[in-house]
């Protein structure tokens, strides 16, 4: 049983072991509480699609992964584990999470996010195995798909120069699946469908030497009527029904698209 074996296998399996050795969740991943700082950070993460031009110099946000290192559980194990806020007592027992602990808070927050209703036109799923992620992407996009991510973190928080640009699907608006890491004892991704977007692969250059330092992936989403009007990315929106804002795919985040 995983609960009885957890202390022994936790480090070897690269699970998140007893995060109460940290003071708060903010030491697991940085979430600024100052509204002005949060707003500034959000706006720095987005840019207009028109800025994706060869030779353009722009500031790249911090794309480094702040999550603690973890691994997927084998599907044969993860598929049998409880995964619901209604089963929180069982989950706490399996992962040795004490009452009112940081581990309990982390688990409840992530489960609650996974259980939120999808937005209009959105399909979503939290996946704890590579098999589940692939199955979800196939269910949305079909089998002719490929996963894309920014190659490394070089250029993060620095000025970069845009090099060669390739529009996926010929630069046409398409559907994609975007997967983002969330905090949980094992590696867990929040995956959701994005109905209208454009995706670009971009060579990222050092603005001084013009040498290639990274190969980035940028995702540009359409502005839809159900978007939160207070969301930072809408501050640079083009207008309803138009491409609103682009963002770089962060380290260890993944985008699934058609393969061409």
Could you explain the architecture of this structure?
With 260 residues, this protein is α+β, with helices and mostly antiparallel strands. The chain has one domain. Strand 6 and strand 7 form a beta hairpin. The longest helix is centred in the middle third of the chain and has 14 residues.
Shape: globular
Number of helices: 6
The helix/strand class is alpha+beta
- The whole-angstrom Rg is 19 Å
- Extended strand count: 10
Low-pLDDT residue intervals, each spanning 5 or more residues: 30-37, 39-43, 229-236
The overall pLDDT, averaged over residues, is: 83
Beta-strand residue fraction: 25-35%
In short:
The protein has 260 residues and is an alpha+beta fold.
Question: Which labels suit this protein?
Answer:
BURP domain-containing protein; alpha+beta; secreted; signal; glycoprotein; BURP_dom; 260 residues; ten-stranded antiparallel β-sheet
Layout: helices, strands, pairs:
Layout: H1 2-9, H2 35-44, E1 46-47, E2 57-59, H3 75-78, H4 88-94, H5 102-115, E3 124-127, H6 130-141, E4 145-148, E5 159-167, E6 174-182, E7 188-205, E8 212-222, E9 243-248, E10 254-258
Antiparallel strand pairs: 1-9, 2-5, 3-7, 4-10, 5-7, 6-7, 6-10, 7-8, 8-9
Main location: secreted
Subcellular location: Secreted, Cell wall; Secreted, Extracellular space, Apoplast
Pfam family, one: BURP
